[in-house]
User: Which sequence fits this backbone?
């Protein structure tokens, strides 16, 4: 991925661009490119009714009319929200307070399990974005069964998961440099080259953001400026602007600025995404507890990196980064909607099983269904505790109840009991 080289203009170029503005085909092309908020890199080789340099000049002129500025350190960042952005924000607002909220409420006690599942997916994907080399299936099994991480990659995921669980409880705190360092320390515990880096701002300027070929994409601010910039970041997070900034947009800006400052030796990306979650939850956007944003980012990593790059190369225009993240959020909302609908259907099936399986409760039926889907893999008491958020005694009673009814077989593995599907009771009756 190369850093885009932006065009330069002479007085003659600007004069020619203004003359081209008299051509309605040119203006139509300008508006069409701006509607998609294309970067110079995306138009310079396009077939257009005028020289792309002239089109780009006019695009920038029209963009400036609707731009807002955010001062930060010595820089001025800006952004413009069009109707498409506001439509996505409206979708988020109405989903949290309308139909999706009703769907989530309808699943009752299973809401906590959905949150746990989302946190696991978020932790896995966020770590994989930063290079954790493990499969989603293996990572999720480790988290569900509370297994000890076997390597640094699995420890990255476990740290992310534990931090995400902690973040919900920190939503009442104002952002402070101490909290930023605390989040970083939790995320990176035991995974850095030097343990002294955990929760500590970098003390040198050796850090560079590079692509897979080693090309430098971003040079962070000097380390001497980090403390002042983080103080300003916290003030921005805690303050109220004269002009309203939608809370989700503000959370996205915080995400970008953390990556831009790059205050730590490693773990900046994970910390930036965690900071976004902290902020939107603090602003009562509870829906994000059910959303694994990083999973969608992982699936579009190239676009994620370009959104950073386009912002920095186009005069710190945050619109690219904001639009990308709103697209990701929209996709994730639809995934949540589909997931909850699927779970509701499964819940109906579970209720049917309860009718034919004696006095099993809903959670015990869900445990049984999990075992039915993976008959070759045993389940432990710890896994039930993690997945369903229950105490040890409750998890143990559930599994023993299933074993006593003959649906599962209890075995000993090492020093603990495990439970396998396929006991003497046979399979529960299928739905007619």
Assistant:
């Amino acid at each position: 991925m190369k850093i885009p080289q932006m065009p330069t203009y002479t007085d003659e170029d600007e004069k020619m661009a203004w003359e081209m503005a008299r051509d309605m085909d040119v203006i139509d092309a300008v508006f069409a490119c701006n509607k998609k908020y294309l970067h110079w890199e995306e138009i310079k080789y396009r077939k257009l009714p005028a020289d792309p340099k002239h089109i780009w000049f006019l695009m920038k002129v029209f963009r400036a009319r609707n731009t807002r500025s955010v001062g930060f350190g010595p820089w001025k960042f800006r952004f413009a929200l069009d109707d498409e952005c506001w439509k996505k924000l409206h979708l988020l607002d109405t989903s949290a307070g309308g139909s999706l909220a009703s769907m989530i409420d309808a699943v009752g006690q299973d809401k906590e399990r959905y949150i746990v599942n989302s946190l696991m997916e978020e932790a896995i994907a966020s770590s994989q974005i930063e290079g954790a080399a493990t499969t989603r299936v293996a990572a999720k099994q480790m988290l569900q069964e509370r297994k000890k991480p076997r390597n640094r990659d699995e420890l990255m995921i476990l740290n992310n998961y534990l931090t995400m669980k902690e973040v919900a409880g920190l939503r009442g705190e104002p952002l402070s440099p101490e909290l930023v360092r605390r989040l970083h320390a939790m995320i990176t515990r035991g995974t850095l080259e030097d343990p002294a880096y955990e929760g500590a701002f970098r003390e040198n300027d050796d850090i560079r953001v590079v692509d897979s070929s080693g090309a430098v994409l971003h040079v962070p601010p000097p380390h001497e400026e980090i403390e002042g910039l983080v103080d300003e970041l916290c003030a921005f997070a805690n303050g109220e602007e004269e002009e309203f900034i939608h809370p989700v947009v503000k959370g996205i800006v915080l995400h970008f600025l953390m990556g831009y400052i790059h205050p730590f030796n490693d773990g900046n990306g994970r910390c930036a995404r965690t900071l976004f979650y902290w902020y939107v939850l603090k602003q009562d956007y509870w829906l994000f507890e059910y959303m694994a944003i990083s999973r969608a980012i992982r699936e579009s990593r190239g676009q994620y990196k370009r959104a950073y790059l386009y912002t920095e190369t186009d005069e710190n225009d945050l619109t690219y980064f904001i639009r990308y993240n709103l697209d990701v959020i929209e996709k994730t909302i639809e995934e949540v909607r589909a997931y909850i609908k699927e779970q509701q259907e499964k819940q109906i099936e579970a209720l049917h099983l309860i009718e034919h399986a004696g006095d099993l409760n809903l959670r015990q039926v869900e445990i049984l269904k999990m075992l039915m889907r993976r008959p070759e893999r045993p389940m432990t008491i710890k896994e039930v505790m993690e997945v369903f958020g229950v105490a040890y005694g409750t998890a143990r009673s559930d599994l023993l109840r299933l074993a006593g009814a003959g649906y599962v077989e209890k075995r000993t593995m090492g020093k603990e009991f495990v439970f396998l599907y396929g006991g003497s009771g046979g399979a529960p009756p299928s739905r007619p």
